[in-house]
């Protein structure tokens, strides 16, 4: 997509894009004011003071105007510089009052509304005194002129402030919308993956598992004296067990309305090795967290079956302080060398699922001393 596309509009803050135009406007007003002072024979000291305001803007004003939340420290430095330098410039060169058309919006962009109004009144004081003293105007006329000038400037400043706030809120809402769309896309993807896993589990159950069961029944119907037949029967049993394990891993978590603790107990009861389940603490967890923990337990038990050569397994569920829930799957098998073994597909899937929920997965193993897979998730759903 090219410039000006919806993607560009979401990626950029329109108010931020306006800052270069503001810099240009300030420069034009400054140059115009200096030209008028020169043409009108004003004091050169006024020009010097206006240039010092430009230095203040370069040092502090640009940062203050662009700050996401005002005021910042630079806002006060620049506001003080504007009041002092402009008042002095107006006293020596009354033509400097033209610069108010840039200085007043600048005050509203870098300060809160009430603070900017106070700065504006302070900067208007010099021109008002000059009208009363030098021009000999009637006080009522001067008062009306001051009220009208302050009202117009305040209206402009408030409009600038509201525009900035609305644009910032718009940018925040767009960012939230983009995050929500990403989360919904991730949830939709996860739902599609789970549906495909469930379909695949059903297909395997209806084909491979039933096929192995039929082969095993036919082999068992023989007299069993032939060693080849016995080995074929043993192979069929092992493959049937692997197929059932694969179906269990692919099927939806064993929650079905049960609690997390009950689901883990079901997994333990259906496992071919002794599994000790311990629960510490008691606290409810969100469904997504419970599902992730049951999936982690399935993956962990599947890895024990395939690789550990263990005699027993221990599932430990802990509801810790701060709303954290931890699950560990430990076995007494052969362990592994962390420097050699890399994550398989199941462990990578486990890490991805847990990471999306803000959790962590760690695997600890020592050759000959078993393996522990530890999962930690925020149980409060935060």
Automatic annotation (TrEMBL):
EC number(s) recorded for this UniProt protein: 2.7.13.3
InterPro entries: HATPase_C_sf, HATPase_dom, His_kinase_dom, Sensor_HK_TwoCompSys, Sig_transdc_His_kin-like_C, Sig_transdc_His_kin_sub3_dim/P, Sig_transdc_His_kinase_ChrS
Pfam family name, one: HisKA_3
Histidine kinase domain boundaries: 293-381
Ranges in a coiled coil: 163-197
Membrane-spanning residues: 20-39, 46-65, 77-104, 116-133, 139-160
Cofactors: [4Fe-4S] cluster
Subcellular location(s) of the protein: Cytoplasm
Keywords in alphabetical order: 4Fe-4S, Coiled coil, Cytoplasm, Iron, Iron-sulfur, Kinase, Membrane, Metal-binding, Transferase, Transmembrane, Transmembrane helix, Two-component regulatory system
Catalyzed reactions: ATP + protein L-histidine = ADP + protein N-phospho-L-histidine
GO terms, molecular function: kinase activity
Function of the molecule: Member of the two-component regulatory system NreB/NreC involved in the control of dissimilatory nitrate/nitrite reduction in response to oxygen. NreB functions as a direct oxygen sensor histidine kinase which is autophosphorylated, in the absence of oxygen, probably at the conserved histidine residue, and transfers its phosphate group probably to a conserved aspartate residue of NreC. NreB/NreC activates the expression of the nitrate (narGHJI) and nitrite (nir) reductase operons, as well as the putative nitrate transporter gene narT.
Protein name, as recorded: Oxygen sensor histidine kinase NreB
Organism: Nonomuraea marmarensis
């Amino acid at each position: 997509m090219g410039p000006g596309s919806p993607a560009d509009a979401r990626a950029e803050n329109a108010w931020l894009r306006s800052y270069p135009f503001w810099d240009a406007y300030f420069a034009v007003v400054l140059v115009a004011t200096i030209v008028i002072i020169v043409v009108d024979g004003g004091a050169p000291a006024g020009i010097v003071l206006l240039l010092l305001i430009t230095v203040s803007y370069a040092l502090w004003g640009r940062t203050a105007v662009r700050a996401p939340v005002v005021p910042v420290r630079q806002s006060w430095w620049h506001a003080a510089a504007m009041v002092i330098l402009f008042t002095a410039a107006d006293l020596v060169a009354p033509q400097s009052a033209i610069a108010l058309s840039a200085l007043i919006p600048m005050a509203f962009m870098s300060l809160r509304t009430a603070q900017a109004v106070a700065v504006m009144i302070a900067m208007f004081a010099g021109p008002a005194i000059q009208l009363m003293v030098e021009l000999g105007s009637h006080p009522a006329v001067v008062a009306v002129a001051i009220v009208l000038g302050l009202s117009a400037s305040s209206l402009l400043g408030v409009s600038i402030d509201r525009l900035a706030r609305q644009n910032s809120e718009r940018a925040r809402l767009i960012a939230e919308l983009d995050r929500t769309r990403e989360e919904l896309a991730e949830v939709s993807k996860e739902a599609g993956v789970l549906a495909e896993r469930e379909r695949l589990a059903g297909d395997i159950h209806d084909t491979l598992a039933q096929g192995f069961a039929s082969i095993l029944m036919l082999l068992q119907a023989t007299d069993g004296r032939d060693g080849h037949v016995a080995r074929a029967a043993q192979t069929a049993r092992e493959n049937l067990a692997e197929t059932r394990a694969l179906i269990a891993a692919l099927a939806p978590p064993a929650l079905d309305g049960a609690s997390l603790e009950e689901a883990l107990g079901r997994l333990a009861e259906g496992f071919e090795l002794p599994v000790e389940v311990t629960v510490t603490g008691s606290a409810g967890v969100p469904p997504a967290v419970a599902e992730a923990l049951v999936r982690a337990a399935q993956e962990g038990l599947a890895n024990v079956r395939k690789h550990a050569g263990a005699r027993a397994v221990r599932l430990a569920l802990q509801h810790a302080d701060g709303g954290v829930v931890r699950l560990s799957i430990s076995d007494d098998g052969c362990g592994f060398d962390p420097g050699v073994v890399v994550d398989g597909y199941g462990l990578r899937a486990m890490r991805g699922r847990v990471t999306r929920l803000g959790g962590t997965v760690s695997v600890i193993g020592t050759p000959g001393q078993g393996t522990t897979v530890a999962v930690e998730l925020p149980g409060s759903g935060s």
